[in-house]
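Handout, page 2. Input:
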Amino acid sequence: QHLIQECLAGRTEAFDQLVLKYQDRLYRTLVRVLGSCDDARDAAQEGFTQAFFKLSTFRGSAAFYSWLFRISFNAAITQKRKNKRTSTTLDTQDNPASHWLVDTHPETHPPDVVELSERKKIVHQALNELQEEYRTPLILRELEGMSYGEIAEITEIPLGTVRSRIFRGRNELKQKLNMLFQNEPETRVPQSDHESSISETK
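Output:
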């Protein structure tokens, strides 16, 4: 709130601090939600630009990050409607923006760290395979910790639909993880750990 008040008072350098504070988190979440590094980068840039000019409309009824994410998310949806381009898919093997999730040198770490890296890759793959209508609210709930109300406001869908999609998303994710872990015998992940695996991608 202090930085926002500084911006509104005409000290635009305060907005630079807001960008530094939120840019990495915003970009990572947009990559997860949109499944595209290009789209995420464009949406984040447009989101910050619009947020700067709309800052006076921020009332503080929601967290600043939720407000910023909604603007960026809406910018991404608008861009997709205008230009359905072929985007870079989220691939943990080839995508340079995936370094935050996957350790690129697992051989230099103990076996338990290697296993964790493998688990993250599997969870990431499962998330990327979910339908967008389930992936988006699930990520915002489980990885961003947003309330159902915040998610409903961001995605502009009814609260009951948000709850339903998160419920179905969790079930689909669990089924995909069961299948993927069964195909990775060296990962050695106990069945009871599947539901908590998504939190490890933070």
